[in-house]
Write a structure and sequence with these properties.
3-stranded antiparallel sheet, 275 residues, alpha+beta, 3 domains, Aminopeptidase, 8-stranded mixed sheet, globular
């Protein structure tokens, strides 16, 4: 994935629809659209999950012998993602190896036994791929100071949108529930809309974050004023944008009061939490 640098007039740039989590700037006759490198910190209450495992998929605990396949799964999952926008291929591969190596070495936090991989059953793997087993997806968990954390969630493109990510995390949830743990933490890139949708659908909720609330307020303000300028202010789209802008304006006010009362750390998850 690459940032966008589009020649256009300033007035045209001002009327562009914004992508949330991306910086929209203008200079030298071009609109420059680049991802912000912030993360959204979320948490979910641990609860038992009902699992329905497809017949062609097997879940098992991760082991260090999986490292090479996990590195490959990492690359296939993220190489065209917003997290590595504008990265050179060799740097992405190097980062993938470092992440998996650091996970098994405990440098990302103590590896949790709930970490799992989803592999094709032997028949499926033999029929379609050079060798079994073939890791379709992985959910790697680490134990941090404040909670167990979903450290890495990887799904190969050919296995995406099949519920495998939810299956892996649900299986881990069952383990954590049996162990008496109450909170599962996670984080995702602010511009990764697909990850945001998955976390929300699974039941994760955002940690109080003043910076993120201000970003959302600015985003909806721009979209609302853009809609006004296009003479569409009487439509349902404008009403929805105005409602979101008002909600996030109120949320910013609320978090600024907390910040004043309790300090910046209380509204900044990256300072308050270790994930």
């Amino acid at each position: 994935m690459r940032s966008l640098h589009i020649p256009m007039a300033r007035e045209v740039s001002d009327q562009m629809t914004w992508r949330f989590g991306w910086k929209h700037e203008y200079w030298d006759g071009c609109a420059h659209i680049t991802p912000r490198h912030n993360h959204v910190h979320v948490s979910a209450r641990v609860a038992a999950c009902a699992l329905k495992i497809p017949p062609h998929v097997t879940l098992r605990e991760v082991c260090e012998a999986d490292a090479e396949e996990l590195i490959d799964a990492f690359i296939k999952t993220f190489e065209d993602g917003v997290e590595f926008c504008d990265w050179e291929t060799e740097k992405i591969h190097e980062h993938a190896r470092d992440n998996i190596t650091d996970f098994f070495a405990g440098r990302r936090g103590a590896p949790h036994l709930s970490s799992r991989v989803a592999v094709l059953t032997a028949d499926e793997a033999t029929a379609n791929l050079p060798r079994p087993p073939f890791i379709l997806a992985a959910a790697l968990f680490t134990r941090k100071t404040h909670a167990t954390v979903l450290d890495l969630l990887m799904v190969r493109p050919q296995a995406s949108r099949q519920g495998i990510a939810s299956l892996l995390v649900g299986a881990a949830m069952n383990d954590l529930h049996c162990q008496g743990e109450t909170v599962l933490g996670s984080a995702y890139h602010v511009a990764n809309a697909e990850s945001a949708a998955w976390h929300q659908a699974f039941g994760f909720t955002e940690e109080p974050d003043l910076h993120l609330a201000r970003l959302r307020r600015a985003f909806y303000y721009h979209e609302m004023t853009r809609c006004e300028a296009s003479e569409a202010a009487d439509g349902s789209d404008y009403a929805a944008l105005k409602s979101e802008y008002e909600f996030w304006s109120a949320r910013v006010d609320e978090l600024e009061k907390i910040c004043k009362r309790e300090g910046y750390e209380a509204v900044t998850p990256s300072l308050r939490l270790d994930w």
